[in-house]
Task: inverse folding
């Protein structure tokens, strides 16, 4: 297969598996999505979705959020981990949204990245999922998949994002990054990976990755 054929195979397979793709983090607008994505750093989406209803019952907009103290926010979000940093970030970005953006989340990558505790990936998710502006957030699943498929060298998420944007048509980015996240979780996980269930990797996988997998399987079988 040529690289173009591999890309088309990925797009067709993912569209067949996920014709409609849900956003994994529960939210009702750009602000609640921003907070949910911030909380999801080093935390599962399932846990975030259990915590955000508690937080948003008290404050689902920046004006109500700054009425709370950092400590009050931290107490609620503690189960999500990194709560000291995340609570300061949530309070700080809410204050900036009020002071500089009339309480609205800006549909601008640079403005988002200037907010406290908001990195490039978080900003990219908000751009794609809240504003439908093409972006390609790369998480650990996407980083792993593009390496396994020989689409990127796996050296950094920044390089993986560049490679993904170069390979895949822009009109697919927003849907594709979600499809890749779900595919990575369901068919091509980091642990307990079964190549025979991994539809895409078994067809277009990087040779070194496949060879390493087969060697491990042979070792297990010989024990």
Result:
């Amino acid at each position: 297969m040529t690289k173009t054929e591999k890309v088309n195979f990925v797009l067709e397979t993912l569209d067949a598996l996920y014709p409609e793709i849900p956003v994994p983090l529960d939210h009702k607008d750009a602000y609640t999505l921003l907070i949910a994505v911030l909380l999801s750093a080093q935390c599962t989406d399932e846990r975030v979705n259990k915590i955000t209803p508690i937080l948003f019952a008290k404050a689902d907009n920046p004006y109500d959020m700054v009425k709370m103290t950092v400590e009050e926010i931290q107490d609620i979000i503690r189960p999500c981990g990194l709560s000291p940093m995340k609570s300061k970030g949530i309070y700080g970005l809410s204050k900036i949204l009020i002071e500089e953006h009339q309480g609205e989340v800006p549909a601008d990558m640079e403005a988002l990245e200037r907010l406290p505790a908001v990195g490039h990936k978080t900003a990219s998710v908000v751009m794609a999922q809240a504003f439908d502006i093409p972006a390609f957030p790369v998480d650990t699943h996407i980083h792993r998949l593009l390496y396994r498929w020989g689409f990127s060298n796996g050296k950094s998420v920044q390089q993986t994002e560049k490679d993904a944007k170069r390979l895949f048509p822009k009109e697919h980015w927003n849907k594709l990054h979600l499809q890749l996240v779900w595919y990575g979780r369901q068919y091509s996980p980091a642990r307990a990976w079964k190549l025979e269930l991994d539809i895409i990797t078994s067809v277009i996988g990087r040779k070194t990755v496949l060879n390493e997998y087969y060697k491990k399987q042979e070792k297990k079988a010989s024990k």
